[in-house]
Amino acid sequence: MATSHDEEFTAFAAASLPQLRRTAYLVCGDWHRAEDVVQDALIRLYRVWRRVERQEALLAYARRTTIRLLVDESRRPWRRERPTAGHGADSWVSASSAGAVDERDVIVRALSTLPPRRRACVVLRYYHDLSVRETADVLGCSEGTVKSQTAHALATLRAVLGDLDLVKGTSS
């Protein structure tokens, strides 16, 4: 028989899973990897579930754990390997300019060109609308680091997206 703690955790996990998966996907660009990392983050949360005092901070804790797992994992040498056959950096640009790929796919692919910490900064600041301070707390870094990483990331996205005007929010 499940305890009330187990039932509470199950309800929280079911409710937060879609948002955590989307966040992980935006940071890593791979749905399968996103699912794996979110599962790991939820396992870590389950281990401390009974000690969590502020229930309203659970989603923030799960999000922070998910992002940190992704950033830490990206530092491992085997994670830096990328398949190249048919997945060249320029293959999606020409497809998007021909109108064959929708804007969301273009943005996700552009995000994938960013290093993990910069990608996490952009996702947390602009997708989750966190403040600089909140983003720094999630990533475990200074506010200055968040500002510089975000500025570099946006400059890269502007260069990659070029004529699409998506970064400015004036997409046609």
Automatic annotation (TrEMBL):
Classification via SUPFAM superfamilies? Sigma2 domain of RNA polymerase sigma factors, Sigma3 and sigma4 domains of RNA polymerase sigma factors
Q: Which Pfam families match?
A: Sigma70_r2, Sigma70_r4_2
Q: Which UniProt keywords apply?
A: DNA-binding, Sigma factor, Transcription, Transcription regulation
Q: Does the keyword Transcription regulation apply?
A: yes
Gene3D superfamilies associated with the record: 1.10.1740.10, Winged helix-like DNA-binding domain superfamily/Winged helix DNA-binding domain
User: RNA polymerase sigma factor 70 region 4 type domain: which residues?
Assistant: 106-157
The protein's matches in CDD domains, at most eight in alphabetical order, are given as: Sigma70_r4
- Taxonomic superkingdom: Bacteria
Ranges for domain RNA polymerase sigma-70 region come to: 15-79
Stated family: Belongs to the sigma-70 factor family. ECF subfamily.
Output the NCBIfam families linked to this UniProt entry.
SigE-fam_strep, sigma70-ECF
| PANTHER family reported for this sequence | ECF RNA POLYMERASE SIGMA FACTOR SIGM (PTHR43133:SF50), RNA POLYMERASE ECF-TYPE SIGMA FACTO (PTHR43133)
- The protein's name is SigE family RNA polymerase sigma factor
